[in-house]
Amino acid sequence: MWDIRDPRSARGWLIVTVGTAAILVGGFGPWVRSGRAWRNSYELVRTADRLGLVGEGAQRALAVSWYLVPLLCGLTLAAIALERPRLSHLGAAIVAVQVAITSVVALRAPVATGWGPRLAGSGAMLAVLGSLLAAGDRRRVRRARPPRPGPAEEIASPVTQGEGP
């Protein structure tokens, strides 16, 4: 997954990392002005739920799962660090879809919005773009790896016979 010799793959994972960090920072940034105070995304979701503005079904699922965004971002970053490409792609995709939907809803609301939804939405786009860039090179990087030695080659190697350096 993370082949430093392949600049496109390295750039892709760097873009995913920057996008995921932007989602985290944007989620805690100012989203909506309420009276004299700016509210971040988590305060906004809590307030909407308390006012009864969150309905049932998809709205409820989106509101409840919004609190999992920092955890999913952390797991995505951990999967990148541990070189787990499938988990990284899955985490980036789930977070990006959720953040993109929530950012668009906040930006289309008839209230004053801060930089939080813009940064989080941009981070979602970066995470998807970087994931696609890194995934596009995965097959080529895999083919470039030398084949593993078979059992017969392992037995005859100098290290197993005690002839090491």
Task: Describe the protein.
By secondary structure, the chain is mostly helical. The chain has one domain. It is built from 8 helices and 2 strands, in the order H-E-E-H-H-H-H-H-H-H. A two-stranded antiparallel ribbon has the order 1-2. Helix 1 runs antiparallel to helix 6 and helix 5 runs antiparallel to helix 6. The two termini are 31 Å apart.
Overall average residue pLDDT:
81
Query: Could you give a short account of the major beta sheet?
Result: 2 strands, antiparallel
Structural class: mainly alpha
Q: Uncertain runs with pLDDT below 50, 5 residues or more?
A: none
Strand content: under 5%
Helix content: 55-70%
Number of strands: 2
Radius of gyration: 22 Å
Assembly state of the chains shown? single chain
Number of domains: 1
Overall, the morphology is elongated
Query: Which strands sit side by side, in order, in the main sheet?
Result: 1-2
Question: What's the SSE pattern?
Answer: HEEHHHHHHH
Query: What distance separates the N and C termini?
Result: 31 Å
- How many distinct helices? 8
